[in-house]
């Protein structure tokens, strides 16, 4: 989990160019994540973790913080593994 | 309804349909009679604390029922409201406050942290804080609170304005680094509302979206067309725009009859394929304005919603909401088809002129000017900028005033007007009008930056133009891109922060020694990442 948080922090700093975002920083209240950032983030989550999801399953709370995004990615990993699906 | 003052829409509808829902947010709704009563009470209080005709009232409020009440109360008190972007950095809001010389700043719990940052810098100003929540905030001196409102009369106030008085100031990006305040009169908006309610057939049974932020002039169409026709205005929270399926759910669940937003949002929804075949059974019209809507995405929408009408609106803030319209007659056959901006709305004029202000021939490209009832009186406290943009008697004594949009256009053989970009460095991104020069001005005054240039690249992404920044750090400076982005974020609103960045040893120069912007654009175009989005079907 902590590796995943660290990797997502790296996406925020090196790809989205958002500096100093802590794992618990509220991305929505601070406006650090907008629709452009969302598209880029999803692209890189897919590239880095093979994370794909049905958009309809997503809620704002999944993107509230880097910690919450990491939880979503890890849970998706577990769910897929349980179903024997390679992600 | 033919009203000459914007608050009249509310007063007349509240008298006719007091119990009908006027505004609906995520957490509450307010009827027309309640909206009238609350705005009357606040207007009485504003007058009691000394607000006079045409005083400016700053609204430091996120999009909410409170903000709509505050707008209408300001008008009822005879004042001019100044909607402020609560997602903007404090330094920019400070400029808006200073420039507008607001007498009162209305705020609430939802904007408390921003207010606390703004106030220390305003300590010496004569601004009073009007607090709309009941409980007095800590560490902020306020002139009144929401609990004072209960003692005020809910009776309608006498109208003290004339239709040519300014109703609101809307601040837009300015190339010199300071936002410009566009003055919009009651008559400017009322004229447009009169045309739009008839043309689009607004009625009391409509449920219309309130998607644009309140500092964005398109929001005035939703608000005043709804108030004038007795429709329900459904405020769309900014967070919804993050997840396209949530917006689709919103349109479905609220049973909206009209959706009005910027094209980038419609394209975002199309890219993620969240619109089902024959979706949104209540919806009868989709409108967009603020930037070009790409034709493949329009085809996506029109194929899925064959029973919905689609309208392209066009117009700068200086000409009030929209000056032209194009009701798309049928789904375009090819993604290559260009969608025109159409013809002028009633009472307005589109003129395509050459450098000598002569009409160009059909098909030829010229400068687009606007004339007519929508034209703003000009920029707040800025005679020079007003003179440069608004030409008085351009065709001889007594001829009509015109506004130079800066857009290039042609009149097609079909009589419709088509856009062909701009000559200057103003761009549209996610519907926002942005002067790239304003971003450069901020960069040039940022520690650690030796040189910088900002260009826009059209790479087919859904947001319209992508803002790209190339900069050269000062020698010895270890300025990294994230740190520079952070610095910019403290001085510019989020929609003006570049998406693509390059730290270079030197900017590319042309033969004249100036920054070679076409070359820079090319460099960014070649390094653009492919869009991680599904293909349209």
Explain what this protein looks like in three dimensions.
By secondary structure, chain A is an all-alpha fold. Chain A has 3 helices and no strands. Chain A is 53% helix and 0% strand. In chain A, helix 1 (2-15) packs across helix 3 (66-82). In chain A, 29% of the residues are buried. Chain B is α/β, with parallel strands linked by helices and 537 residues long. Chain B has 3 domains: 6-235, ANL, N-terminal domain (Rossmann fold, 3-Layer(aba) Sandwich), CATH 3.40.50; 341-422, Luciferase, domain 3 (Roll); 429-527, ANL, C-terminal domain (GMP Synthetase, Chain A, domain 3). Chain B has helices spanning 6-16, 32-48, 65-76, 90-100, 112-122, 186-199, 218-229, 244-253, 263-271, 295-304, 383-389, 436-444, 481-489, 517-527, and strands at residues 21-24, 29-31, 56-60, 80-83, 104-107, 128-131, 166-172, 180-185, 207-210, 232-235, 258-261, 285-288, 309-314, 324-327, 343-344, 348-353, 366-372, 378-379, 390-391, 402-411, 417-422, 426-429, 432-435, 449-457, 466-473, 500-503. Mean pLDDT of chain B is 92; it is low at 530-537.
Assign the CATH class of the largest domain in chain B: Alpha Beta
Mean pLDDT over all positions of chain A: 81
Number of strands of chain B: 26
Number of helices of chain B: 14
Derived from helix and strand composition plus strand pairing, the structural class of chain B reads alpha/beta
Notable characteristics:
A: 87 residues, mainly alpha, Non-ribosomal Peptide Synthetase Peptidyl Carrier Protein, Chain A, 3 helices, 53% helix, globular, B: 537 residues, alpha/beta, Rossmann fold, GMP Synthetase, Chain A, domain 3, five-stranded mixed sheet, five-stranded antiparallel sheet
